[in-house]
Amino acid sequence: MLLSSVSKHKLRLEVVRYLRITDTIDASDLIWKTKLSNIDEYHDITNLILLILDLSKQTLVKLALQPQLYSKLRAINYKFQICCNYYDTIKALNSSLSDCSKYVLNINLINSLKNLDYNLFLQQLNIPNVLKTSIESWLAHGLLDEYICQSQSFDLHLANKPKGNILSSSLINILLYDLSQYLRHEVLNSYNSSQLGCELNFIIYDHYLILSSVNKSVLYKIFQSVTNWLLRFSMKLDKYSYDLKLSSRGFNFLNYNISFFSRSAISTSLFIQPSLQVMRLFVQKNREIIHNLRSSPLKLLIKILSQQIIVLGKFYGFCNVNEVFKTIDHVLFLQLSSLIIERHPRKPRYWIKKHYFPNSQNYYFAGTYYISSWVLIDPNCLDTYYLPKIQWLVSFDI
Q1: Is 46 exposed, middle or buried (0-12, 13-18, 19+ CB in 10 A)?
Q2: Do residues 156 and 110 touch, judged by C-beta distance below 8 A?
Q3: Domain spans of the chain, in order of start
Q4: Which has the closest alpha carbon to 229: 265, 165, 186, 287?
Q5: Cα separation of 314 and 187, whole Å?
Q6: Which helix (H) or strand (E) holds 256?
Q7: Within a 10 A sphere around the Cβ of 66, how many other Cβ atoms?
Q8: Residue 260 and residue 98: Cα distance in Å, rounded?
Q9: How far apart are CA 319 and CA 90, in angstroms?
Q10: Which keywords, in A-to-Z order, does the entry hold (predicted)?
Q11: Does pTM top 0.85 for this prediction?
Q12: What Cα–Cα distance (Å) separates residue 352 from each residue in 72, 342, 385?
């Protein structure tokens, strides 16, 4: 039986009363000790409950901070956009860069955050002491350290949010709001506000900052101001954490390669596709999967590779990826055909083609029918069990 809206509201209030954000988070101490021990003990029901409790408290604090934070961000008088997911970030870039070629300042603060002085940061928070004490305790337990570690994970796509770390993004946004105020005071007020509003765009996605302007000198001054601001919190930028170039030359952001080009004298376009590193890692990951499962049932191999393909399509299907996906499909076919030939060394090529890559078959994938001749199937399954092509995940341009 479905709960009424009143019952759901009462249930939420009961949960909030039970969690009780207080001056201490003693119940969370145990789960953070488990995290820091580098031992995966979440199969223990006690640790799982403590983890859920800790994340719920983080969510409550985040909900308490959001109204004030977002109202401040909306009050900024130049184009400042704070993005909640990677898709919103790419859309914001598309709208800010699609009119003409601009200079782009791309900054990654992840290494700088390692040296953040928590005491100086907490002094900037104008929030109730009960919330500040909880945040101080989380930071002491390693909340931000966990976020940094997960963000730099080799197998984590940069567009993914770190898991088990609900509050970190909001804390970073609070920090970057202070940066926006500093920039407005130090740099932006020296320019004509109406002109600056048209020329400067400031986009934030967690610890990533991207600023674009037709005026290169503005970005130079902003970069110097960002460097000075970081020193206030005992942070600094290394030479690998920033980049300044024309959008027409292309730049990497969130594992996307973004470039601006002119189709004609009056027509321009923004070209977005996966970065070269993403494509190489995808091919290498597939090679490792095929090697590790070379003696396993083909159905298992297809299942795992399908997951890889769908994840790639999720992040890049809306980009300009037709040619890129065709290339990746071809490379994956070569990898798979080598495996099949290795399994049947005495069989001729036409036999392998007939049994594993049949001609002109119908495939139903994601609500659409496709006719293709080079799709890997498992001939031992009664129903058609196949590996979808990456090209099928091309959707639309943003």
Answers
A1: exposed
A2: no
A3: 76-272, 275-393
A4: 186
A5: 39
A6: strand 256-262
A7: 12
A8: 7
A9: 10
A10: Plastid
A11: no
A12: 63, 11, 16
